[in-house]
Amino acid sequence: MPELGKLNARAAIVPSSLNEEKRTVEVVFGTDTPIRMYDWDMGEFMEIMDFSEGSVRWDRFKNGAPVLDNHNRYEGAKGTLGIVEDYRTEDGKGIATLRFSAREEVKGIWQDVRDGILKGISFGYRVYKYMKEEVGEGELPKMRAIDWEPFEVSLAPIQADPNAYVREKNQDELHQVEIIDVNLQSERSETSKTKEKENQQQREMTEEEKQAAAAEKARKAEEAKKAEEKARAEAVASEKERAKSIRTLCRKHKMDSEFESKLIEEDKTVDEVRSLILDKLETEDETQSVRGQSVTVGEDKGRKMAIASSVAAVVKRSFPKLVSDDKSTFSEDVVREANKHKGKTALDLAKDSLIRSGENIEGLSSMEIVGRAFTSSTSDFPVILEGSAQNTLLANYQAASDTWSRFCSTGSVSDFREYKRLRMGTFSDLETVNENGEFKTKAITDADYEKVSATTKGNIINVSRQMIINDDLGAFLRLAQMLGRAAARSIENDVYALLAENSGLGPNMVDGNPLIDASHNNIGASAAPTVAQIDALRVIMAQQQDKDSNDYLDIRPALALCPMSLGSTIKVLNQAQYEPTDNKFQKPNVVAGLLSDVIDTPRLSGTAYYLFADPNVEPVIEVSFLDGERNPFMEMQEGFTVDGTKWKIRLDYGVGAVGFRGVVRSPGA
After folding, report:
1. Residue 62 is part of which domain span?
2. Which residue, 47, 352, 617, 640, has fewest beta-carbon neighbours within 10 Å?
């Protein structure tokens, strides 16, 4: 079992496949033609890439393998030009569809691809198992790759040459490859003896015994195949769990994405990653002034209380309700202790933190005291400021009024790639089987899907040393308050911006049509809201069918979304016992209580309105948060451009349409 590194092979673009609108192009990234190769351990040989079923591990391509700039895996998003959107095998060839990013820095590269200037394509792959085939005397050994994995595609400056393959060996990325040698004389001899024995047994067997032996052989082959598939599935699951654990550890300790990706690529174990993170944290603690709101191991209770009560005191000065409210995050003991800090200025709190950590401040000026309170490794003053800002930020973020959470579903993604939200199809009705007739196999159709992804939004706020000396922390906390509200408002605005696309018909779905479209059967008549109109919209939604049109989904409206001008009208229609327009005969209101919520918002205008199903039953729009974390994240660093500190606030989320069957729209009067 020799050790090999990751391999790269040049491939070719298919010029006629370029799609300008979708920014996609096809590449032939491999064939089963024997290619002359050379490896330091294995020498010169002919390599054959096997594209038959079960030979290629497609997991990376299924999850959107990256398209890189000349195999640059260490610059994160900067070196990523796009993703592998689709793949297939055809006549012993591997074909992939590449979709390029719309980022500004990628536009020039996409233009060069369109103009035929960049023609070189290289793809990276790993081989896990070769089958060494029998060859004639004097011929180079033939190695068929029967277990291999493509993991990225790159734009390369070298002219594409389907017959010229390049192999790289990076000593940091070596892995063992298994070689099955069918040319060994001992194996051939043993195989011949076994074959002769089987032939002799076949000559002596009856017909029934032959059939039984054949069935037993087939059974054992099937068991061996299942065992191999199970082992491969377990290996894939283990790799996914390893990557997930590494991501969790890195984000818990605030490691950057480049460091995280490198650990995953280098196949580090979770234990190795823990050790590397500890080493990195120790190094950063000595060379950088980055702080988190962490507590030192073995810290005494008195110091914890001093920090918590100081945080409460700072917050109470500007936002007393956040401390005294029943939903306050501060305990009664902390609030009681905070009263002891009443009247203290920010400079006083800085002095207290230095004295608490054993610093001598005698003879220091105010500017020197504040500077040392920020930079001393034992000072807890930055932790007090960060705790104050974090509590203010989260309180205002969570208290901000929003409507999106009432009609949108909430999802989670583990990174910034596109994720598919699938909808399975159904079988058609069972078919009649005549006497002595055959049972027909049901076809299983592919699932429908829509895509969601997360992105990062955020800002930075600063606190100068002059602000501390002037005791102007109220201005700083007001900035945190505004950022909390801005974070909540960002999600709200993004949801309505998505709904407003295509003149209120919503974004284009994977099928190319808007969310609201005649092909989706979710458009009602142009009419003002009445009992009859809402009932007609109810019928339209209930008539939605599954993707294979085998069954009605019978979805019911649960929510109305409308402009402020229509809110009162729809609420009356939903709550009235009798039909409002029929005062004479008191005709029962057939839509009374149909809706559990009526959402009227100034973010919609005109006369159009929507009915949504319960988002937990039939989601239409999903707000996806990175790792399910719905709250903004705050981190602090000593300022380089300002004489003080700065805080970065970020929120990782994305908004996308994931289905059309749970919404119906009326253009209104």
Report:
1. 3-183
2. 640
Which residue's entry shows tokens 């299942």? 226
Indicate the burial class of 189 (C-beta count within 10 angstroms; 0-12, 13-18, 19 or more): exposed
In a domain, 143, yes or no: yes
**Whole-number Å distance between alpha carbons of 310 and 295:** 15
Residue 405 maps to a domain: no
Is the domain of 112 the same as that of 219? Answer: no
165 and 68 in one domain?
A: yes
Give the angle 326-328-329 at the CA atoms, nearest 5°. 140
Q: Is the pTM of this model over 0.90?
A: no
Give 47's strand partners: 35, 143
Residue 159 phi, psi (nearest 5): -55, 130
Q: Are 649 and 459 in contact (CB under 8 A)?
A: yes
Q: Are residues 31 and 9 in the same domain?
A: yes
State whether 24 and 159 are in the same domain: yes
Mean pLDDT per 10-residue section of the chain, whose length is 669 residues:
59 70 85 79 82 88 85 66 90 87 88 81 84 84 89 70 39 60 50 53 62 81 80 76 79 75 80 79 51 40 78 73 65 78 78 80 80 71 73 69 89 82 68 74 67 82 70 67 81 93 93 93 94 95 86 91 95 90 78 93 94 93 88 66 66 91 93
Residue 328 CA to residue 311 CA, distance in Å, equals 13
- How does 266-298 read in b/e, with b if 16+ C-beta sit within 10 Å? eebeeeebeebbeeeeeeeeeeebebebeeeee
Output the CA angle 84-86-88, nearest 5 degrees: 120
H or E segment to which residue 233 belongs: helix 207-252
Handedness of CA 149, 152, 156, 161 (dihedral sign): positive
- How far apart are the C-alpha atoms of 260 and 258, rounded to whole Å? 5
Domain annotation covers residue 493: no
Q: What is the spatial distance between Cα 36 and Cα 172, in angstroms, rounded to a whole number?
A: 25
If asked whether residues 13 and 130 sit together in one domain, one would say: yes
Same domain, 237 and 358: no
Question: Are 315 and 364 contained in the same domain?
Answer: yes
Contact between residue 630 and residue 410 where contact means Cβ atoms under 8 Å apart: yes
